[in-house]
């Protein structure tokens, strides 16, 4: 261990010796170049068989989602609120054809364009909601766990009450509060993001607080206190960096939940106006009456888009979780590794 | 005689030694009581949060009638309803009402919120019960199969199915079901709880209950029964798929855990058949976490019920909630949300008690 490369306590100094296989893989990844140590890449290298398939499918879907969102203006044949081109109307409920690969909606929007533009809304809400709840939840959890006392008790009670509440209902209440229902593009995205944030904050809060309470009693925190380290530094360095282990899982789970909540809000009519941005949930709401008369293309494609987006994010999160948990990791790989060790 | 002696022997260690044992020994009644009392702060916090959140932006009258009245008329209406008083006074007024079982009056159709609950709550309850049945019937056996065939192809397929069940929004499942079974094949009705003809027949029944299936049974008419049941199939599946996927995964993960236990090996060595090992020895302990998770599921299912009811125009609380939201009737919205919060808190309590009864370790 060199001075230029400090190792956080509990990781490099041999305390994990009982988990021989685990530390072997950690050591293996620690030696490899930096790009192999990135979260998803290192998991991909460790995975095998079905688990690898799931992870790859997830990564492909997520990358596809992000690329589509990025290049939406180039990919989409028409604008998300266009009902015609050069003064010629598309016409409502047109079945899929050469001009409209996925048909048109009741209002005469091009379904393909709306599905493609919808990725932007979904990604924007997902990113805003997850980042906001991450920062808020982690900050509150750190503070609550470290300070303790009445502040801790009040925050825990509040978080528990919110956690027990149906998240969709809470999001509905929040969206009423923020936007009074319908709103424009960024207003709507922010409203949805904040509504979802309120639902998620307790989850981060709980995890971080529990970790902080546990870590607070560790000798290295006491040592830091003894040498006169400030509260801020203890919270920011000693506690924060050691309590973030479970965050990636909540992070991915929340990302997929954010897309679902956004779609649910849109479906109930509490989303973004169709002329300010494209949103899959709203489109599905409008497609519901079409289904009765057997018009399938207006609802099927926005729905599939939701499923693909949520599936991608969930698969990545699930696989990372399974790979991090030695009990759930596919057994074949472990037995093979052990066998190799025996022969060597 | 022997039983008397047994209780004597049992009693002595419980009453004499360390206080820790004593607390865990006689604690069930106390645990239930404490757990019950904990509902009060939870519900209280939720009511406070929801009340103040809904009032941050303004009063319900401005929300409902904002654009349609002149400012003077609006001010007059607000004064009549008492919305011009300080917020804190309104809050205590509302709280006082809630304590007397009065959740306020909806603004658009002047119905007490408690009446809305009793009228439409039954329909939601019925739907949730069907969905739980669907979820259990589908989720538990499939989870068992997945655990038995771990890491082989049936497990792979089932895991993907479970994740798909989670990733597909309820309303999209509903749309697909409608497209296939209603519009496509024409087997099942598109929406609603009962056909108009069935409703007329049902009208003849004395003191009708909110549960259509029970009423149809009481009526003893097969055609009405089929009518009611066929309306319930698609909504129950749509809502059940969501929870079924979660049950599948829970059973799978827990059974993988229990299948590796040594008592399974010991039972196998005694010649217990594989099917009995799976269905009895490994399944029972794996079911305990399901009971606990059910509590969380009820909160999620109520959220899902809002979406399912809107999809299938199922006349329940969720459907009404969406309707009142469209009408900007925030008194009713607040009331229904609050009611659902109380239901969730109560069902969590019941689940915790059941979990404590099943598993003696869950007492604190």
TrEMBL record, chain B:
Residues 1-22 are annotated as: Disordered. It holds the Pfam family BPD_transp_1_N. The keyword Transmembrane helix applies. Residues 1-15 have a biased composition (Polar residues). The chain crosses the membrane at residues 32-54, 127-145, 157-181, 228-251, 286-307, 330-358. Residues 121-355 form the ABC transmembrane type-1 domain. PROSITE patterns: ABC_TM1 (PS50928). It comes from the Bacteria. It is a multi-pass membrane protein. Its main location: membrane. Gene3D superfamilies: MetI-like. It is found in: Cell membrane. Keywords: Cell membrane, Membrane, Transmembrane, Transmembrane helix, Transport. InterPro entries: BPD_transp_1_N, MetI-like, MetI-like_sf. Belongs to the binding-protein-dependent transport system permease family. This is ABC transporter permease. It comes from Brachybacterium tyrofermentans. The lineage of its organism: Bacteria, Bacillati, Actinomycetota, Actinomycetes, Micrococcales.
């Amino acid at each position: 261990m060199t001075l230029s490369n400090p190792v956080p306590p509990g990781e490099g100094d041999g305390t994990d010796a009982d988990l021989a296989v685990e530390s072997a893989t950690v050591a293996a990844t620690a030696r490899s170049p930096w790009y192999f140590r990135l979260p998803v890449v290192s998991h991909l290298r460790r995975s095998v068989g079905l688990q690898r398939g799931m992870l790859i499918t997830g990564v492909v879907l997520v990358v596809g989602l992000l690329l589509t969102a990025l290049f939406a203006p180039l990919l989409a044949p028409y604008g998300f609120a266009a009902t015609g081109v050069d003064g010629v109307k598309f016409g409502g409920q047109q079945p899929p054809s050469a001009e409209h690969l996925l048909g048109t909606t009741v209002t005469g929007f091009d379904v393909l364009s709306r599905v493609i533009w919808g990725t932007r809304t979904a990604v924007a809400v997902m990113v805003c909601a997850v980042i906001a709840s991450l920062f808020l939840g982690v900050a509150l959890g750190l503070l609550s766990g470290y300070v303790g006392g009445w502040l801790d008790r009040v925050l825990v009670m509040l978080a528990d009450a919110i956690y027990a509440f149906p998240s969709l209902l809470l999001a509905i209440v929040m969206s009423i509060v923020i936007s009074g229902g319908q709103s424009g593009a960024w207003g709507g995205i922010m409203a949805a993001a904040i509504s979802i944030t309120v639902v998620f904050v307790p989850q981060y809060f709980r995890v971080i607080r529990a970790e902080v309470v546990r870590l607070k009693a560790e000798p290295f925190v006491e040592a830091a206190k003894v040498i006169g380290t400030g509260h801020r530094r203890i919270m920011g360095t000693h506690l924060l960096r050691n309590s973030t282990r479970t965050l990636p899982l909540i992070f991915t789970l929340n990302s997929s939940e954010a897309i679902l909540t956004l779609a649910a809000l849109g479906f109930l009519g509490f989303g973004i106006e169709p002329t300010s941005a494209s949103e899959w949930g709203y489109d599905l709401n409008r497609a519901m009456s079409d289904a009765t008369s057997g018009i399938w293309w207006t609802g099927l494609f926005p729905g599939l888009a939701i499923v693909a987006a949520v599936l991608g994010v969930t698969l990545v999160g699930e696989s990372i979780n399974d790979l991090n948990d030695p009990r759930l990791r596919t057994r074949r790989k472990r037995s093979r590794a052990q066998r190799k060790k025996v022969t060597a | 005689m022997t039983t008397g002696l047994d209780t004597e022997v049992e009693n002595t260690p419980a009453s004499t030694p360390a206080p820790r044992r004593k607390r865990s020994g006689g604690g069930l009644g106390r645990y239930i009581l404490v757990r019950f009392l904990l509902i009060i702060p939870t519900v209280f916090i939720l009511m406070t949060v929801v009340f103040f959140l809904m009032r941050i932006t303004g009063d319900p009258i401005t929300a409902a009638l904002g654009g349609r009245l002149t400012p003077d008329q609006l001010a007059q209406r607000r004064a009549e309803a008492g919305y011009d008083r300080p917020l804190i006074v309104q809050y205590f007024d509302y709280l006082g009402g809630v304590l007397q079982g009065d959740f306020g009056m909806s603004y658009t159709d002047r119905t007490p919120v408690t009446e809305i609950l009793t009228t439409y709550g039954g329909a939601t309850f019925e739907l949730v019960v069907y969905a739980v049945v669907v979820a259990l019937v589908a989720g538990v056996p499939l989870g068992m199969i997945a655990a038995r065939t771990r890491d082989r192809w049936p497990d792979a397929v089932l895991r993907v199915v479970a994740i798909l069940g989670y990733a597909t929004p309820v309303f999209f499942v509903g749309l697909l079901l409608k497209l296939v079974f209603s519009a496509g094949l024409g087997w099942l009705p598109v929406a609603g709880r009962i056909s108009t003809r069935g409703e007329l027949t049902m009208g003849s029944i004395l003191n009708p209950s909110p549960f259509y299936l029970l009423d149809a049974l009481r009526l003893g008419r097969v055609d009405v029964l089929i009518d009611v049941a066929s309306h319930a199939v698609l909504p129950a599946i749509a809502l059940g798929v969501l929870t079924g996927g979660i049950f599948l995964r829970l059973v799978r993960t827990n059974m993988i855990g229990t299948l590796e236990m040594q008592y399974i090996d010991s039972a196998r060595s005694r010649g217990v058949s594989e099917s009995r090992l799976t269905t009895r020895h490994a399944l029972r302990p794996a079911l305990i976490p399901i009971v606990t998770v059910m509590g969380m599921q009820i909160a999620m299912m109520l959220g899902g019920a809002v979406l399912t009811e809107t999809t299938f125009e199922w006349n329940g609380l969720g459907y009404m909630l969406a309707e009142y939201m469209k009408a900007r009737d925030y008194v009713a919205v607040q009331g229904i949300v609050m009611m659902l919060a109380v239901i969730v808190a109560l069902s969590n309590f019941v689940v915790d008690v059941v979990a404590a009864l099943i598993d003696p370790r869950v007492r604190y």
